[in-house]
Amino acid sequence: MKRIHNVLVANRGEIAVRVLRTCRRLGLRTVAVFSDADRDAPHVRLADEAMHLGPPPARESYLSIERVLAAAKASGADAIHPGYGFLSENEDFARACAEAGFAFVGPPAEAIELMGNKRQAKLRMQAADVPCIPGYEAARPGESLEDEALVREGQRVGFPIMVKAAAGGGGRGMRLVREPGALLDAIRSARSEATNAFGSGELILERAIEGARHVEVQVFADAHGNAVHLGERDCSVQRRHQKVIEESPSPAVTPELRERMGAVAVQAIRAIGYRGAGTIEFLLAPNGDFFFMEMNTRLQVEHPVTELITGLDLVEWQLRVADGEPLPLTQPEVTWRGHAIEARLCAEDPARGFLPQTGRLLAWEPPSGEGVRVDHGVREGQDITPFYDSMQAKLIAYGPDRETARERLAAALRELTVFGVTTNSAFIQHVLGHEAFRSGRYDTGFVGAHTPPEMLQELGKASLEDQAILAALLFHDDAQALARKGGFDATLTGWSSSYALPVPVSLHDGASEFRASVRPVAPESYEVRVGDTSFALSLRGLGAERAEVEVAGRRRAVRYRRAGGTLWCSLDGITRQLRDVSFRLPSERERASDGRLRAPMDGRIIRVSTEVGATVKKGDVLVVLEAMKMESSLIAPTDGVVTAVNVTVGAQVPARHVVAVVSPAAKEAA
Prior knowledge:
single chain, Rossmann fold, Dna Ligase, domain 1, D-amino Acid Aminotransferase, Chain A, domain 1, 5 domains, 8-stranded antiparallel β-sheet, 8-stranded antiparallel β-barrel, globular, ligase activity, metal ion binding, biotin
């Protein structure tokens, strides 16, 4: 008898929207939950009912088991879907749901607890004859995981070696060590980070398999003893051990290897009495050997690529299994067709070390077209806050073959319009166009090998022609605004009773500063000089905030939007924010350092490593700030003495907030 009729989705953003849509398609009543920061978010508007949880910090809202269960009870929900992240892999939450009488759309609490610890999971997989990476996890009684023991065992395992936090993922508490002398410092650093992130400093060691690919297998099991795999996904393009691009099938997996990996993955979930959706993650070595890394006991971010090549709705499968139904298909009935690639669109600045970005979405226009799918939970006018993950959307493309899928995804990214917040779109486009990715011959070292910091700073850098177009567009938009304000004919823009003089401007396009001179020569026609190069161009309006620019017979479409003194525009798929800095005051970089240490973004202070009166050296870490699940170390700008500390651990601070002041040593001596 059917038990699930009313589903509360205990999450936010794109995954909440994704789950809600399947629930509505199945005719189920839906309940959303929200924090103060998400009152007007799309997932709140999509649900039949929405329940307020609390303040923006996740621990006071989305991570509060008591508040989520209270919302479920008040709304009359009979099932809770956790999505991914937040409480999705929290065994206490799964157990509390069951005890309160709610169907938990996920695996049993015992499976979550077992597989949530890398050490325990690895020991269980070894017992089930699943191939595991050689390493050290204190498997025998009396063995220690203390620093000294790890250093000793690290020498035995050999280098390079990975130090890993047992209790978490996402790259936190993980260090690659190449030399024996660096192992102890790496262990101490990883233990500290793991303790702060997961509340546990337990570590394990694994031999680093270089040149490997990260390949995971989607698995499903029900309460009737059935278990299947739905193929693999290649997640090797990563930065800081966090996935950027995923695809299915993997270019490195043959049908024979898929069958072997799938059989091992099913063997693994049978060994733990699993139920629901899960993912077995493997490292695939260059020689074709594969090794168990970990299991994610939830739906994965990248599940859409599996859905597109199988034609299945994995959220529907989750709901049916949670309602006691058997799996819809047996293993022989599962088929795969075509190729799918997914890219994670994040609010971050690759040129600044992928620093998370916050702000208001001035424009949000997702792409469309054959084979293109966009999963998102944002809307125009929404504030992107520092409280949650930086991922805002997933762009997925499907095609009959890999190259078609790749080209469709690249085109979708060029069509995407996001103004107001810097994203990693240009970085993703670079990856998709790189020969190593196009060929399919890449591994987990892709980002480090092909996108060094100096190259990231060059991504999206405007050519001279681009700079001329940007200068003319800003000038033209200013003139149009003046015409509207003055009430005169916009065709008179740039008119002069005598020879029109060039107007010198200094502009900053978000990546660099340049100078140009703009001279109107006719309505919508300009002569622009950048350096020693002159360009004759025309701008023709195509409607609201869209234009077509022609230079030397070449026409290009431009999308733009003005926000105060900043003009956001997209040219050939590259988004830039243009500011006129012709009359600015000297910037901080142009002045001698005043010793003020400022927060680079909105965030929460998680560590203060100094105090007033402390003597510090330039580069010393004084404060650590966390935003969007990423930690940023704020360092002393100069040698000197700390004369002010304006934050405490746990404080939420805005971007540009002065967290500390260091008086330069020379001044102190004086």
